[in-house]
Amino acid sequence: MPLSSMELLRRYRRDERGVVSVMAVGALVLSLAVAMIVIDAGAMLYARRDLQAATDAAALGAVRQLQSAEAAQAAAASIFDMNDYSTAGITTVRGIYVADPSLAPEDRFTEADGTTEPPQINAIRVLKSSQAPTYFARVFGFGNLTEISTVSTAAYMKTVSFSAGTRVAELNEGLANQVLGGLLGTTLNLSLIDYNGLANANINALSFLDALATEVGLEAGSDTYGDLLSANVTLGDLVAAAVEVLNSDTYEGDRANALQALAQLPAAGVSVPLDRIVDAAPFAGRTIGSIGSGLGDGLTFNLFDLVSGAATAMGEGQAVGIAFTLPPLASVTGNVVVGEPMARMAVGKIGDSVHTSQVTIDLQIAINTGISGLLSSNILIPIRIAAGQGQATVADIPCEPAGTRTVLTATTQAGIAHYGATPGSTFPLATIDVPLLPDIQLSARGSYPIASGGPTDFSFTQSDIDSVPPQVKEMSSDVSVISGLANALEVQPDILNGVLDSLLTVVSEVLGALDPVLNSLLRTLGVKLGGLDMIVHGVRCNAPVLVL
Predict the structure, then answer these.
(1) 207, 312, 454, 492: which sits with the fewest CB atoms below 10 Å from its CB?
(2) What is the DSSP letter of 291?
(3) Terminal CA-to-CA distance of the chain, rounded, Å?
(4) Which of 259, 263, 464, 290 shows the shortest CA–CA distance to 251?
(5) Is residue 512 within 8 Å of residue 329, measured between CB atoms?
(6) Which residues of 90-100 are buried (b: 16+ CB within 10 A; e: fewer)?
């Protein structure tokens, strides 16, 4: 008997055969949708990255042809063609770029118009549209191609390599080895010749960065110099890159002594981000290896600044013990603590800065006075010195052929030296055993403020830059911190008449002898009390760079 229509419908609803097939079809559709999103989106991003690289290259080529809009457009089209892109969909806009960090990035480029004088035009913006193929999206009716577009701006920039420098010839190598070795966690035995070998060696900044990128495993053509600046590096990485440049590329100075000094530095140790040691902001957006050697001509890094800067970055916050003597009367012990470091040398543009670190020094000076008539006259002097940070900022790069090439502005923070742990506290100054008298306890306290300095401008000419050793421009406050403390002492009790006067005379002499030793210790770290030393290593007046 044939089934009724209602019965057939009831059986169909209860029949579960083929359900898996239906679910499989649904899963397949879902998989295709996910594949469309993942594969097609990835392909589009990959295509856009390639187009962006070509657009960057086109902008850097077009900026060299700023004499006319037609020449710039032709240069950009030629570079796109060499990279297998169509010459359609290219727009070039000439304009004025101002490297003013106070302006938002989008406000630094102004399109040239009929009132713009040709010499003012220093930048070009290149826009390019293209199409990227799709693979799975077409299954859902989205078409075979998707539109992508890129933009890049290049400008002729003035750049300078500079540092918050030091005068290595004035260093005490014993103290330098103690301080730098302690910060690096190793024992150093460098001689003054070694230190001056480092100080007199400037290596090409771009060659050094390229070599360092290889050391830390970054790839030319894909990773950027910005990636390198944020990458962690060890002293061994820095040394290996510096040695490669010294052996194969442009260098200035005493290569033999520089190599000898580098060979004595440790290969292991802690790692820190490179941008805490050096800065190269104008290169940050460029891919490694994409910059022609001409861009880096004249821009150098100094090897002593590199080693000292690495030590301060790697030893941040550590208390490094020091000990030395001041013949014939005194011995000194203590420790040095370096605050948060920032790049002490850089390749930069107007507005970029380098910094010295804040440094705290605690010293304990033991003086054997040698005064006749006293059975014992050892004097213990506790001193704490807090040195503020110094900053050198690129104020201008006039690039005058026979005049000022660049101007740095120096500023320093205030600091203070305490004769004692804190202001107002009293410290035992001397225990003196005098025949027929009980022990007499003297105490003293004092402080010596170090005023902030600047802003003060310093101009550098080409002869300053080319001199060997390099010309150091010095913002000086004529601070004699330690000997100044002797004049600030408040001594109690005042009962020993001529003996007390003799004691204070000896103290003053010892403190005066300590001043140059303290200055040498600070210069090892690139620091100067109440002042700042600056060095310009090179100036590039027409460097084509990518800008925001």
Answers:
(1) 492
(2) S
(3) 84
(4) 259
(5) no
(6) bebbbbbbebe
- 358 contacts 341 by C-beta, under 8 angstroms: no
Tokens of 43: 């392909």
Mean pLDDT over each residue of the chain, to the nearest integer: 81
Omega before 328 within 30 of 0, i.e. cis: yes
Rounded distance between C-alpha atoms, residue 136 and residue 138, angstroms:
5
The answer to whether 245 and 207 have CB atoms below 8 angstroms apart is: yes
Neighbour tally for 126: CB within 10 Å: 29
DSSP, residue by residue, 137-149: GGGGTS-SEEEEE
493: helix, strand or coil: coil
Strand 345-348 to 278-279 pairing: parallel
Cα radius of gyration (the chain): 33
> How far is C-alpha 224 from the chain's CA centre?
17
Cβ atoms within 10 A of the Cβ of 169, count? 12
145-164 and 532-547 beta bridge pairing = antiparallel
Q: Is residue 276 within 8 Å of 314, Cβ to Cβ?
A: no
Task: Name the pTM for this structure.
Answer: 0.75
Residue 303: exposed, middle, or buried by beta-carbon count in 10 A (0-12, 13-18, 19+)? buried
The pLDDT confidence band at residue 143, using thresholds 50, 70 and 90, is low
Q: With contact defined as beta carbons under 8 Å apart, do 349 and 159 qualify?
A: yes
CA distance 341 to 184: 14
DSSP 8-state symbol, 136: S
Helices (H), 297-339: 303-314
Whole-angstrom Cα distance, residue 284 to residue 299? 15
- Give the pLDDT band of residue 237 (cuts 50, 70, 90): very high
In this prediction, residues 457-465 reach a mean pLDDT of 93
Domain ranges in the chain are 29-155, 159-543
CB 422 within 8 A of CB 392: no
Give how far the C-alpha of residue 123 lies from the chain's centroid of Cα atoms, to the nearest Å: 27
